[in-house]
Structures are given as structure tokens and as C-alpha cells.
Amino acid sequence: MKRSLTLVLATLSVLAAACWGEPAFDPEKLAIGPGGLVGNGDTITSGDFPGGDDVLPAPRQVESLPDDTRPPDCDGACVSYCNAANLQNPVNRGLCRSLWGVGLSHQPINRDEACRRLFVDMIGRVPSADEAESTCAGSWGDTVKRLMDTPEFIFVNQRHAADKFLYSNEVVNIQAIYDMDRLMEKLYRGKVPYDQFASVVSAHPVLMRRYADAGDKVDALFKLFLGRPPFEFERADMARVYGLWHSGYYEHPLLGRMPDAYLRFRCLAEDNKEVDPVKKGECTSVVWGYHELVFIPDVRAALDPQIRELTMWNGLLSADEWAQLQTPGRVLTQEIPFWEHAVDEVLQRYLGYELSPKVPEVRAELVRWLLQYGGDIRSVHYAVLTSAAYLQSAYGTTPTSYRWAYGPLKQMDAEVWIDSMALNSGYATANCDHRIAQPETLLRNGSIASYRVLKASRWNINDKGDLDESYANLARTLGGCPENIVGGRFRVVSILTTGTQLSFVGDLCNPTMSAQVQGAPLERLLPEGVEGGRALTADLAVQIAQNQYRTLLGRTPSDEELTEARNAGTQCALDKCSAEAFARPLCFALMSSAERLFY
């Protein structure tokens, strides 16, 4: 019986691939799932959002500034002042009554700091000075638009989704993970409105297989899209329709046995041909209207020997059936808290703190903004990234404890830190792939198809089939490249992480000039045309420092920093230092600084 079921499913999978319009097997086009049914037309909006270049008002002259012990009180004069400011950016409009309108000022920012922050948040790495100067020239609105149009912006958001949905190919079918990744690309290309995205996710195999119990599925959906757990009556009601899902295993004809989500046929009469009027209440949600979800089995159904019930693989569902199953997501998108949580997530991600509870006007303005642009989530990213809340300095004198009066300061993700180190210095590293958290699971399968999937992924695998996990091992110690089986990504500063980081920087910069350590290419650490054996002078030390600050830190050094380099070069020259003997320790000093960990 088990063998015949496997053969039936293998045959049906080939038919399903044809129905989805995909080739039977392509390691670079592995996605199969409901994400392929949406976002296949034009973009929702043009992507040309206003409000990127507001002329910010000066603080209103007031008799006394707010005293920091309570939220600022915006009186009639304050309201009139903010209305007259004619601010186009919704974040700036929302902030005005708690900032400029009450006499407070924001913290001015320099272009280097702002550009570096935008690169890290949007592109996933620190820029070189040349990149920063060319990309961040002109207005901030144009800069953000340029960065939003890059493939790296899409990739960074796909990796955020992997953290949010805890991709794990040991728990979920890898084809479903690839489909969710494809759906995220469509979302950030502006082809899928956020409410439609949430509806698809609410019945996506990544979510349905990740959480086994119906109640757990409800919990996950509420936390993902409302930012809170469901009330007990909400959980009990929605669990009735989520009870249709069953966690099983799918025998892929080439990739072998994989975990996947199946549809159960509940609330039917004994002949399985019609709805049982007595049982159908167990498959009906009534809190958000009357939503009955009962499916009648047909030739696509097969007997599951484990639970002794008819089930159907999700890859055989039609577009209409997917639409019915996405009812839980659609009902949540009708709630205002759904849209509020959508904008709160973007604010939290870029600012690093919760702004909405402190200044609720910002949330209200952003919700209206998002709805105005048809649910195009890119509009919210653009608004936050070009706002005064984001484009202000985290350094310098802070005249107030009001958090929105100075800029964000956040810790870099592990991958951002490693990638920036490697790309800026030319140091060769491997990689990891957020879609395949457990590559060894595919390798254990031993099939050529599994090898081809890994070879086409971002994992590094040699011609002998050996996986290079050096990057992943380093990143996982620092909280990145999560396996997502139990927990996900984390950020921490500890003795272990600091030691790990210093060890990596030591290998990269090789300050002791050990023959056993390859290190970064010397030509990246020295000015063009300078040989490593050249005798060091104070002027050469300054040139080396100028090159490394621009290449490794992405900015021009200050006069004070150049003076320090000149003094260090003078001392080193007394010991007859070479250019390399000065450059490599300087690399270590710069790369191990806090500026490389926080932004």
C-alpha cells in the first residue's frame, strides 16, 4: 500500500508541475506553491513616491521646552505651525507635533553617516567611500529610489522573511520555501499588495507545515500579522478552518522524502461525497462572518496509512481552492490593526525602537499612506527611509531624552558584518543560503538532483560534493545563518562573540604577517602602485590611512585620525617598518573597531 501511494504521488507531482506551468525539475526554478498564482502582472504603483525631500521646519519658538517626563503637548499654535509646514512625508507629518511643533529639534546628520546606514539597511553591507559618494550624490529621495531598485534590496528583504517565517528544509518542503522566497520578491517589486500577500501566507505550506496543531497555526498568523496572540475565542474559532491541514511527507521523484502540508477531508458524511450537516460546524468560522471550509475528495486524494484518512497534497490544489483556504488571511486584512502592525514592523526595523506607542500620529499617517498606495509596502519603506526620524545622527550632543529627536544606532547582523569585511577588503569567503537552512539534509539524500539544487544555491560546494560551511559556522556563532529548527537569528555582544570576531579580523588582516595566514590581498590595503616592501615614511602612513579609511570604513578620515596615522607612521619608520608592516596592523585596528559593528 505504501509503495503504491508513493508511485501515485510521484506521478501526480509531475502532472502538478505541468499544471503550474513549471518544468518537471530545474534546480534554479524549484518553487511550487500558491505564490506562483499572484503578482504576475504589472506593478501596483510606479514606485515614484513623494515626500522624499521635505524641507524640514525649524523648531517653533516656545516659552519652555517639554520636560521629558511626559509626551509633548501640542496646543493650537503647534497644530497650526505643523499644518503650515506643508510636509509631504507621512513620518515627518506625524512627528511634527511631537518635535518641531513643540520647540524640539532633530539631530543633524552628515552624508557619510546617512549613506552608510542606508547601505547597511537596504543593501546589506558597508559601502566603500567611492560607492557612497557616487550612490548618495543628490537628494535623499533619489538615493533611496536608486537603492530600492537594486537586486540587493530584494535579497535583504528575502533574508528578513526567512528569519520571520523560520525557513527550515527539515520541517518544510524546500519547494514551498522557494515559493515563499519568490512571493517576497514579488512583494518588494511592487507586484503584490500587502493584504494579498498576507492572504497567501495564511494558507501557505511554509506556515501550514511549520506549525502542526491548528491552534498553533492561528497563534502564528496573529503574531505575524497583528503583532499579538489571538484571544481564546479567536483561536478556537479560526482553528476550526485550520483543522483541514495535516502535516505529512511528500515523496519527490528526484529529491526524495520531504516534509509537506496536506489537506484533510473533514466534516463529511460517511460516504465522503457530501457535507455532514451535523459535523460542518467543526469546519466553520463565524467570528468574522460565516466561512465554511469543506472539501469533497476526488481522484487527487489518496489514503494516508498513518492517519487512515484520505488526504491531498497541497501541490495539486487549484487556484480556486487556494483562494478558499486563504480565508483566515483575508478576514484579518479587514482589521485596522493589521495595517498598523504592517507599518510598525517597518518602523521597528529601520529605527530600532518602537516609535508608534510614543508618537501614534506617525502610525496613523503611515496607515493612510499605505492604503493610499494600494497596499504597496515599498511606499512605507520609502517614507521611513527618507524621514527625519531615520536621517538624523545618533552621535553628538542629545539635548533631550525623547527618542525620536536623535537617530537610530543598531548592531549589524552577522552576514552584514562578514560580507562587509570580505567585500571591502577583497578577502575570499564562502556563503550560506537562507532558503536552505540545513544543506546537509539534501546531501544525505545522495541524489544527483539534490546536488544540483545545492550547486545552484548560494552554498559553496566543490566538485567532490563537499560543502564549505566555514562561513555558516562563523555566522552562526554570531547569530546569523540560523538553522531555524527551534530558534532563529539573535544579536548579542559577549566574550565569545568578541573573541570570534577578533579571530576572523586577525585572519583577514593578518597583523603579524604570518606565512600560514593568507589574509586579505595586500593591494586592497595599500594605495595604488605602493609595494608592500617599500620603506615607510610619515607621508606614506597618511596615504595608507586615507586609502584604508575610504576602502574599509567607507568614509574619508578626519584631520585627527590623519594626525594619529602620521604619528604612528613616524614611530614605525624609526624601526624601519615596511608599508605592509604598517598596513596590516592598521587594517586590524580599523576592522575591529565599534564602527564596524554598529551603525
TrEMBL record:
It comes from the Bacteria. Keywords: Signal. Residues 1-18 form the signal peptide. This is Lipoprotein.
